[in-house]
Design brief:
Helix 3 packs across helix 4, helix 3 packs across helix 5 and helix 5 runs antiparallel to helix 6. The N terminus is likely disordered. This protein has a domain of 79 residues: lambda repressor-like DNA-binding domains (434 Repressor (Amino-terminal Domain)). By secondary structure, the chain is mainly α. Helix content is 69%, strand content 0%. The protein contains seven helices and no strands.
Amino acid sequence: MSRPRHMRTERAAEAHAGFHDLLRSYRLRAGLSQVRLAKLAGIDRSFLNRLESGDRCPSRIVVLRLARALGLDERDRAALLFAAGYAPVRAPLDRQAELRSLAEELQRLVMTILVYLDGIDHDES
């Protein structure tokens, strides 16, 4: 059973309380007008205006589009997502670097074992 529409809207607005201020500050910092940002993000200017005024709550996709259009770095993008009530996007792990590091460590371990075994007198039986 779903909540009445007005209750969902109020609850969503509470969850996104700081989003509108943060979005506006990022837009001003980037030196963009609402018209230009809306065009870059592929959204309607009046929708952007309602986002900045706190009258509307964005979807996750809209937040990511805005972040890309604003040229936000990972930290600011995470802050914008969090302010909108979404979990931040994590950068993919560099598995190749992790595997190289593990392989180097394993190689050092094998060399240590071989040096140790080479120093043991094997003739004692």
